[in-house]
Amino acid sequence: MDGMIPPTDARPGTPVSIAEGRVANLSRRGLLGAGAGALLLGTLASARPARAQGEGLAAAAPRPGTQVAAFLEIRGDGTVRLLSPFVEGGQGIATAMAQIVGEELDVEPANFIVDCAPPGADYLVVNGKRLTGGSLSVRSSYDTMRQLGATARNMLVRAAAARLDVPEGELATEPGRVVHKASGRALAYGELAEAAMKLRPSEVAALRDPATFRWIGKPVPRLDARDKSTGRAKYGIDLTVEGMLQASVVHAPRLGQEPDVLANEAEVRAMPGVHSVHRLPGAVAVLADSWWRARKASEALDVTWKEGRHDRALPADFSSAGMLAALRAEKGAGSPAEESGDLAAAFAGAARTIEAEYDAPYLAHAQLEPPSTIARFNGDGTLELWMPNQAPEMFQAVIARISGLDAAKVKIHSPILGGFFGRHFLYDAAAPYPQAIALAKATGRPVKVIWKREEEFLRDGLRPMGFVRFKGAVGADGMPVALQAAAVGEGPIGRYFTPNEAVDSSMVEGIAGKPYAIGAKRVDCVKVAQPPVIAFWRSVGHSMNDFFYESFLDELAAAGGKDPYEMRLAMLKDSPRHATLLRAVAELSGGWKRGPFEAEGVRRARGVAMASPFGSEVATIAEVSITDGEIQVHDLWIAIDPGRAVNPAMIEAQVRSAAAIGLSSSLLEEVVYENGEPQARNFDAYTILPHARMPRVHVRVVESGAALGGVGEPGVPGVPPAVANAVAALTGQRIRSLPMAKTRLGSA
Q1: pLDDT tens, 452-468?
Q2: Largest CB tally within 10 Å, which of 86, 230, 608, 688?
Q3: Which stretches does DSSP call E strand in 25-102?
């Protein structure tokens, strides 16, 4: 919500239009909105050279999270402004940060105003980087943000001790004030501003005993709920700056094509409100005084396209069916991601061996808010952007390179996101910011680009296609003794971060490292490049790999004549955390029963699955029926063990939303390519789960005390296999290819 740089009296999300040139003199103090009586804890900032506004990664770097002034402004009215390292996109991270910092600072979370911090070395709190994704936000920054709050509280206590002329040990804090119980005196945090600013922060400020927590671990209401429910919250598409033009873009039908002839350019330029028409790499843009006029003009353009040069150009004959055929045809051994036991001996001595192949399609992110960017070149030589993103410093560095500016000259504002699911990372040709920069430079005016829905579906980065080949065996007692899997394809980790490593972790997560006791196993990673722009998608490889693995595990249970729940429980006898969770989800569902059975006059069955994504553990049970060949999911029971809970209410909300996207993707969603082009260009052709098909979702948070795990994504991967396993129990038909709607079903 830092998108429009709110003043000191602005509520979170309140937009302020900025006249051109007005931001040239903003300092750190100006950005924080410091006023009379405000406490800016800034002594560390003066201990090292000043850095430019919008600090780049090359700036002199403190240990991230240690500069109180970079994060906190305590105001005279008792409110606290927190500049969060993370982008709020509906996951509740602003509230979680207020809980964690507020717990140690001794300020009610409701008294926080949380904005997204600008790029800067102070905010690299995710293992030396900064990103909002991978379910990393809370678990990567929990200790840092607690210490931040404790350091600020310590400074306030020391300032109060000097003011009251009493030993620090005689002072305590209550929400928003320091108290001296012996004399009955108290000082509000805002009263201690000037004195506290002169103190050097302690490097060893004491943390609270978790047994005394008042807000961490409690279902604190979300800070943004009122603004979002009343329309006050402002997203990227809502923002404005003075004098800006609006742009609508038409992309080439196939990535790699370029605009050739604009047959009616003069007529389009003459349309009402139109400012100009511009050729861009792989696209044409129309600028106008309103976005609607720009859109209507862009739709009127008569453009022919020619072949161009692009590193990710899609072949004219590329199809998703052809890609799946290529993955099936790849028989290479690949590289082992996991090996244990004597696989050959286990198969040789097995009572029964089975094999199966599973696949999953390309998926779009289909987030509610379409991509947008505002770009403005300022008179002081800076480039300023308002843009949905999940990694401000990464975007700052790339934008600096493409614009030819120093990173310190690139200012990134990160508004709240209208859904993201991994959509707003640096994917080639999948975001409008290069277009906005080029158009702002060409026109000398601020430019706002919004992609209409059709352009978003055309240029979205996709969850990659997945394909896994399995072979498994059971012994004379019916229990699994061997499992071999080969994941074939490409994943986003390998493409963007580890291209030279033999194993792409995003291809095998959810297959390698499963907790079940199997004597011999091997998981191979077989790399096959995929031409489309691939991307991270909610729960990444787990979103399909747990479907593959947990479905095949049920096939092994059937081969051995075992109940799939009881078999899993037996395989987890040496893993009490997982066994406890599995029992918890069974209890939540009223007791495990596979079926088929009758319920509410309908024949139903249940399926079970487990997943271990992002440091958390999840167990899922689904209850389904079949009506006119269509899967009806009546209930989902999900038990999640995130180690510890910062806000159990938000964990439940995240699991419910994850269950919805997991069910939608498994039943209905699919991106189909033909002739190098995606066939779905809007929600009429890219079907998502309708409200009428959303089941009841029951969630239990089980705190094992293990290290903090993620919560935004773990609810996804257990849903597809639990549903597929329930369908197999009900009909006898094993679904091995997603989405499930492709398979016509009937009751057994």
Answers
A1: 999 999 999 999 999 99
A2: 608
A3: 39-40, 72-74, 80-84
Cis omega before residue 739 (within 30°)?
Answer: yes
Return phi, psi of residue 582, to 5°: -65, -40
Residues 722 and 622 sit within 8 Å (Cβ to Cβ): yes
Q: What is the dihedral of CA 164, 165, 169, 173, to 10 degrees?
A: 10
Residues 6+ apart with CB under 8 A from 118: 2, 31, 53, 54, 55, 83, 392, 411, 412, 413
Tens digits of per-residue pLDDT, 115-135?
999 999 999 999 889 999 999
Q: Do domains 45-233 and 320-363+462-742 have the same CATH topology?
A: yes
Residue written as tokens 């045809």? Answer: 329
Topology (CATH) of 45-233: Aldehyde Oxidoreductase; domain 4 (3.30.365)
Q: Which of 718, 588, 711 is nearest to 647 (CA)?
A: 711
CA distance 65 to 63: 6
For CA atoms 572, 549, 667, 677, give the dihedral sign.
positive
Q: Tell me, what DSSP letter sits at residue 126?
A: B
> What residues have CB less than 8 Å from 488, skipping those under 6 apart?
327, 330, 334, 467, 468, 469, 526, 528
Q: What is the dihedral of CA 711, 716, 717, 723, to 10 degrees?
A: 140
Q: What is the pLDDT of residue 488?
A: 98
Q: If residue 436 lies in a helix (H) or strand (E), which one and from where to where? A: helix 433-443
% of the chain at pLDDT higher than 70: 91
Q: What are phi and psi of 404, to 5 degrees?
A: 75, 20
Query: Where does residue 388 fall: left (phi above 0), alpha (psi -120 to 50 degrees), or beta otherwise?
Result: beta
Q: Which residues contact 568 (CB under 8 A, 6 or more apart)?
A: 516, 553, 582, 608, 610
Structure tokens at 138: 């809370």
DSSP state of 409: G
Q: What mean pLDDT comes out for the span 413-423?
A: 96
Residue-averaged pLDDT of the chain: 91
Domain ranges of the chain: 45-233, 236-311+371-450, 320-363+462-742
State how far the Cα of 154 lies from the Cα of 146, in Å rounded to an integer. 12
Query: Which CATH architecture best describes the domain 320-363+462-742?
Result: 2-Layer Sandwich (3.30)
Picking from 577, 560, 579, the residue whose alpha carbon sits closest to that of residue 569 is: 579
Confidence (pLDDT) at 392: 97
- Coil vs helix vs strand at 363: strand
Residue 319 has phi, psi (to 5 degrees) of -145, 155
Give Rg (Cα) of the chain. 28
Cβ neighbour number for residue 529 with a 10 Å cutoff: 10
Task: Compute CA distances 100 → 75, 227, 734, whole Å.
Answer: 19, 22, 46
Contact call for residues 633 and 607 (beta carbons, < 8 A): no
| 653-683 pLDDT tens trace | 999 999 999 999 999 999 999 999 999 999 9
Query: Which option is the CATH number for 236-311+371-450: 3.40.1000.10, 3.30.365.10, 3.40.50.12780, 3.40.50.2300?
Result: 3.30.365.10
